[in-house]
Amino acid sequence: MFEAFRDVVSNVKGTVLDREASLGRPVIGVMPAYFPMELIWAAGGYPVQLWGNRLPLVRVDAYLQSYCCTVGRSILELELSGGADMVQAYAFTSFCDTLVNLREVYGLLFDKPTFELTIPITRTVEAKRQLLGSVISEVLEGLERATGRKATPESLAEAAELFGRTRALQRRLYELRRARPGLVPSSDFYTALKAGFFLPPAEYNERLGGLLKAMEEREAPAGRRPRLVLSGMVFDPMEILGIMDELGLDVVDDDFANGWRTASKEPIGVGDLVSGVTDFLFNPAPCSCLYNPDNDRHDYLVDKARQADADGVLLWYVKFCEPDAFDRPQLIERLNREGLAATFIEVELSMTNFDSIRTRLDAFREMLGG
Amino acid sequence: MTRFKALSRMKEIMTDYYVEAKTTREKPVAWVTSGAPVEFLFAMDVIPIYPENYAAMCAANHQSLELMEAAEAAGFSQDICAYARTDFGADITQGGPVGGLPAPRFLLCSTNICKTVIKWYEVVARKYDVPLFIVDTPFLHHGLTRELIDYTVTQMKHLEAFLAETLGRPFDRERFLEVLQLSNQASTYWMKMLELGRKIPSPFNSLDTFIHLGPIVTLRGTRTCVDYYKLLYEEVAERAARNIPSVPGEKYRLLWDNLPVWFKMRRLGEFFEERKTTLVTTTYANSWGNYAHIYQDGSGDIYEPIAAAYLNVYINYGFEDRIRYLASLIEEFSLTGFVMHSNRSCKPYSVGMYRMQEELTRLTGKPGVVIEADQNDPRAYSDAQVETRLEALIESMEAVS
Fold first, then answer.
1. Domain formed by B18-172, architecture
2. How many angstroms separate the CA of residue B254 from the nearest CA in chain A?
């Protein structure tokens, strides 16, 4: 069932080159996080999402300090090592300090165009709208220059439908997992999600639709094993998901930036693109990088864990991710106060030894009574 | 380092400032970031407290390590900004030179120095259950634009309404205009003083300017601040007129990019002095010269120059603009080289620095070095490694003619 997704994830470059040729659309590399794929597709591009990778970090040391997170470092390593030759341009958001500066580093190092969807972090509603109006126009112009095509109301509507459908299908997969814990091994679940970073939307939707059909007919295994909600930026390294499967930990939901936080987003309203993109960026799931006290992250995670009938929350901390690191102590305290077990693991995308992670997860499993 | 007569006055001012903040019963206290538009607060008689300034004081007093360890024991990762960790520790233990900071009534932060401050202040807002107002000042990838000024002005007008609502009284526009003028004047004296560094030999050392930053950071917008920088400027100007150098026999003149290493000020001062090297200019101290045009008398929108000043901050610039600016400093201050502090605690300042170093050398022909350190965390600093790199730089420079 998951083989087709595994093939994509294990051969990203081949997949992208092949689809680029058949689509006839230039590849646009999409940096973390929340850049609407819809804008790229509508402007004639083929968005490929870059959430970091498992490359050994060799060349990047000459350009980025070791205290930058391995998401940013591995993405730059990919370009430096020639692994992203097919990428014609890069789409950034102003997600965090490292990524804002990384765009500037790309500007000094490479000739490829870059554009940034600047995310307004203000509670002044009028200002937010003011800025996003000009930012969206600028981003679309940049994309159109890179692709040589124009975004039109029709192409925007088509893109909104396609990617809205992707996320709806992903949400169905999440629902099934919540309702039938243990139905899907975590490593397979996230492989299915990850394939969507690289495949064109229509093809991905078709595959995901097929997967869902097969999954709907399956029953969850009997008995209850410890149930977890995962929270963090990216669900890599995926070896850790395999360890969870081996240890009998059922992931019942997540709060990953490249997982549920994105999958939960409704189709972008393209009639009023500024409102549509604002809603897309800030709703429904909160994010440690996007200040929004109207949608409190603590309350949200407590509710999420309860709704999923989880026994605990595991914070998946990519080392040097300051936004997650700042949130952690108060968040763990709150979760514990609500009677939810919580701990964290510290990961790097380039890590190769998982012994200490396994030990920590095993201890957490025991704590949860598994 | 140079011992200025004005130093004792500065100590009095800073003591009075912290004593008032700690003891006041009448005035509200707000915690603010170093790049926040503090003029709005002084207009409403709010005492602004700068956790960054306090963290720097703790490190200069060699107290940052114990405070950071307290924060880490409470669960804060060593990966987060050492200023934030120092302040969290000071808050937990009520430690540091003035025994912790007075509790805030509200918080004001601006993103022109980093996005880290948002996270830092979110933690404080949760702990004290107080409102946080953010003035978002996006990164200037392509310089200052009309759209960014409009965006910032709209938020500043909202800030006035926020202050009026939070404090239960109307925003004091008349007082605000006075405060803007005072801010202008203090920053003008500050910049005039810094520009005296063009003189060969330099009458001051940038390590001195780091020490004398206190009032321009914390009291910008007050008469006290203007009077202090007038005093300091006059003293430095007199030294310049009398040709008194900060470093006798000055041979080398350096630019320092990024924050100081607060806990190594004395040692670095001695290191450079022994090698006849003066730190002449810094991007960090220069940042507080931004406010010298914050008030434009007479015509035009009063908010636009304020928005421009708070957007147009060095670490909010795109890299090409940063490199151009650094090159202009090297030229104007007759520098023989430059030092870039790759600061583990400050990603906006540091990420991309390696490439900037190469570009700057290519552009100016001057040698530069990147040192790996941290503004506040002694565990991320090695005397031997840093000094070896600095030695190599000094050996590669041509002495000033």
1. 3-Layer(aba) Sandwich (3.40)
2. 23
